[in-house]
Amino acid sequence: MAQQERLNVGKLVNTHGIRGEVKVVSSTDFPEERFAAGSVLILTDPESRQSLEVEVQSARMHKNMFIVKLKGYDNINDVEKYKGWTMQIAKDELGELDEGEYYYYEIIDCKVVTEDGEELGVITEILSPGANDVWVVKQPGGKQLLLPVIDEVVLNVNVADKLITVRLMEGLI
Question: 0.85 exceeded by the pTM?
Fold first, then answer.
Protein backbone atom coordinates (compact mmCIF):
# COMPACT_ATOMS: atom_id res chain seq x y z
CA MET A 1 0.00 0.00 0.00
CA ALA A 2 1.44 3.37 -1.02
CA GLN A 3 2.21 5.60 1.93
CA GLN A 4 -0.01 8.68 1.91
CA GLU A 5 -0.49 11.22 4.64
CA ARG A 6 -2.74 9.69 7.28
CA LEU A 7 -4.55 10.77 10.42
CA ASN A 8 -5.13 8.60 13.48
CA VAL A 9 -8.78 7.99 14.30
CA GLY A 10 -8.35 5.42 17.06
CA LYS A 11 -6.30 2.70 18.67
CA LEU A 12 -7.23 -0.96 18.74
CA VAL A 13 -6.63 -1.75 22.42
CA ASN A 14 -8.10 -5.22 22.88
CA THR A 15 -10.39 -7.93 21.61
CA HIS A 16 -14.02 -8.17 22.71
CA GLY A 17 -15.59 -11.61 22.97
CA ILE A 18 -14.73 -14.48 20.64
CA ARG A 19 -16.44 -13.37 17.42
CA GLY A 20 -13.73 -11.02 16.15
CA GLU A 21 -14.93 -7.76 17.68
CA VAL A 22 -12.30 -5.29 18.89
CA LYS A 23 -12.21 -2.48 21.45
CA VAL A 24 -11.16 0.85 19.99
CA VAL A 25 -10.28 4.04 21.87
CA SER A 26 -11.39 6.84 19.56
CA SER A 27 -9.15 9.82 18.81
CA THR A 28 -11.30 11.36 16.10
CA ASP A 29 -13.61 14.34 15.95
CA PHE A 30 -16.28 12.29 14.15
CA PRO A 31 -16.41 8.74 15.56
CA GLU A 32 -19.95 8.11 14.27
CA GLU A 33 -18.65 8.75 10.74
CA ARG A 34 -15.25 7.03 11.04
CA PHE A 35 -16.63 3.82 12.60
CA ALA A 36 -19.85 3.66 10.54
CA ALA A 37 -20.62 0.44 8.67
CA GLY A 38 -18.83 0.47 5.34
CA SER A 39 -16.05 2.86 6.43
CA VAL A 40 -12.61 1.85 5.24
CA LEU A 41 -9.82 2.28 7.79
CA ILE A 42 -6.11 1.57 7.70
CA LEU A 43 -4.74 -0.58 10.53
CA THR A 44 -1.09 0.30 11.17
CA ASP A 45 1.47 -1.37 13.42
CA PRO A 46 3.17 1.52 15.28
CA GLU A 47 6.48 -0.39 15.43
CA SER A 48 6.91 -1.97 11.98
CA ARG A 49 4.68 0.55 10.13
CA GLN A 50 3.07 -2.47 8.40
CA SER A 51 -0.49 -1.63 7.43
CA LEU A 52 -3.64 -3.09 5.91
CA GLU A 53 -7.03 -1.79 4.87
CA VAL A 54 -10.08 -3.01 6.78
CA GLU A 55 -13.79 -2.31 6.41
CA VAL A 56 -16.07 -1.63 9.37
CA GLN A 57 -19.00 -4.03 9.46
CA SER A 58 -20.58 -2.54 12.59
CA ALA A 59 -19.70 -0.48 15.66
CA ARG A 60 -21.30 0.53 18.91
CA MET A 61 -20.32 2.65 21.90
CA HIS A 62 -19.54 0.72 25.10
CA LYS A 63 -18.01 2.22 28.27
CA ASN A 64 -16.27 5.18 26.55
CA MET A 65 -14.93 2.91 23.79
CA PHE A 66 -16.15 1.61 20.51
CA ILE A 67 -16.74 -2.07 19.94
CA VAL A 68 -15.96 -2.51 16.26
CA LYS A 69 -16.62 -5.53 14.06
CA LEU A 70 -14.37 -5.65 11.00
CA LYS A 71 -15.69 -7.28 7.85
CA GLY A 72 -14.07 -10.69 7.23
CA TYR A 73 -12.65 -11.00 10.76
CA ASP A 74 -15.02 -13.40 12.50
CA ASN A 75 -12.86 -14.96 15.19
CA ILE A 76 -10.80 -13.69 18.14
CA ASN A 77 -7.73 -15.36 16.60
CA ASP A 78 -8.12 -13.23 13.45
CA VAL A 79 -7.90 -9.92 15.34
CA GLU A 80 -5.75 -10.63 18.41
CA LYS A 81 -2.51 -9.89 16.53
CA TYR A 82 -3.67 -6.30 15.88
CA LYS A 83 -3.79 -5.26 19.56
CA GLY A 84 -1.94 -1.96 19.92
CA TRP A 85 -2.25 -1.03 16.25
CA THR A 86 -3.55 2.41 15.27
CA MET A 87 -6.61 2.97 13.10
CA GLN A 88 -6.12 5.64 10.48
CA ILE A 89 -7.72 7.29 7.48
CA ALA A 90 -6.07 8.92 4.49
CA LYS A 91 -5.93 12.69 5.02
CA ASP A 92 -7.58 13.27 1.64
CA GLU A 93 -10.73 11.51 2.93
CA LEU A 94 -11.51 14.41 5.27
CA GLY A 95 -14.70 16.28 4.54
CA GLU A 96 -15.04 20.05 4.41
CA LEU A 97 -15.97 21.76 7.65
CA ASP A 98 -18.13 24.81 8.21
CA GLU A 99 -16.56 28.17 9.01
CA GLY A 100 -15.27 28.20 12.58
CA GLU A 101 -14.92 24.39 12.75
CA TYR A 102 -11.54 22.67 12.85
CA TYR A 103 -10.14 19.16 12.89
CA TYR A 104 -8.22 18.13 16.00
CA TYR A 105 -4.96 17.80 14.08
CA GLU A 106 -5.27 21.47 13.02
CA ILE A 107 -5.55 22.64 16.64
CA ILE A 108 -2.90 20.41 18.27
CA ASP A 109 0.49 22.21 18.43
CA CYS A 110 -1.04 25.67 17.94
CA LYS A 111 0.55 28.45 20.00
CA VAL A 112 -1.90 30.22 22.32
CA VAL A 113 -1.61 33.93 23.11
CA THR A 114 -3.83 36.34 25.03
CA GLU A 115 -5.45 39.32 23.33
CA ASP A 116 -2.63 41.38 24.93
CA GLY A 117 0.01 39.25 23.18
CA GLU A 118 1.13 37.27 26.23
CA GLU A 119 2.24 33.78 25.19
CA LEU A 120 0.44 31.07 27.20
CA GLY A 121 1.86 27.90 25.64
CA VAL A 122 1.01 25.23 23.07
CA ILE A 123 -2.10 23.04 22.75
CA THR A 124 -1.14 19.43 23.42
CA GLU A 125 -4.49 17.70 23.78
CA ILE A 126 -8.23 18.14 23.24
CA LEU A 127 -10.69 16.87 25.84
CA SER A 128 -14.41 16.36 25.18
CA PRO A 129 -15.98 16.19 28.64
CA GLY A 130 -19.47 17.34 27.71
CA ALA A 131 -21.04 20.59 26.54
CA ASN A 132 -17.87 21.95 24.94
CA ASP A 133 -14.35 20.82 24.14
CA VAL A 134 -11.45 21.80 26.39
CA TRP A 135 -8.00 22.54 25.00
CA VAL A 136 -5.06 21.48 27.15
CA VAL A 137 -2.30 24.09 26.90
CA LYS A 138 1.20 23.21 28.06
CA GLN A 139 2.63 26.39 29.56
CA PRO A 140 6.32 27.27 29.79
CA GLY A 141 7.52 25.43 32.89
CA GLY A 142 5.29 22.44 32.15
CA LYS A 143 2.11 23.47 33.97
CA GLN A 144 -1.19 22.77 32.16
CA LEU A 145 -3.88 25.31 31.44
CA LEU A 146 -7.37 24.07 30.56
CA LEU A 147 -9.17 26.38 28.11
CA PRO A 148 -12.88 25.89 27.48
CA VAL A 149 -13.66 26.19 23.76
CA ILE A 150 -16.37 28.83 24.00
CA ASP A 151 -16.85 32.12 22.16
CA GLU A 152 -16.10 34.20 25.29
CA VAL A 153 -12.62 32.63 25.55
CA VAL A 154 -11.52 31.77 21.99
CA LEU A 155 -11.29 35.01 20.02
CA ASN A 156 -9.41 33.95 16.88
CA VAL A 157 -8.13 30.69 15.39
CA ASN A 158 -5.52 30.93 12.64
CA VAL A 159 -4.65 27.34 11.65
CA ALA A 160 -2.39 28.49 8.80
CA ASP A 161 -0.09 30.27 11.28
CA LYS A 162 -0.83 27.77 14.11
CA LEU A 163 -1.85 30.70 16.36
CA ILE A 164 -4.88 31.02 18.63
CA THR A 165 -5.85 34.21 20.43
CA VAL A 166 -7.84 33.93 23.66
CA ARG A 167 -9.37 36.11 26.36
CA LEU A 168 -8.72 34.68 29.80
CA MET A 169 -11.79 34.72 32.00
CA GLU A 170 -11.37 35.19 35.72
CA GLY A 171 -10.34 31.96 37.43
CA LEU A 172 -8.83 30.24 34.38
CA ILE A 173 -5.22 30.70 35.50
Answer: no
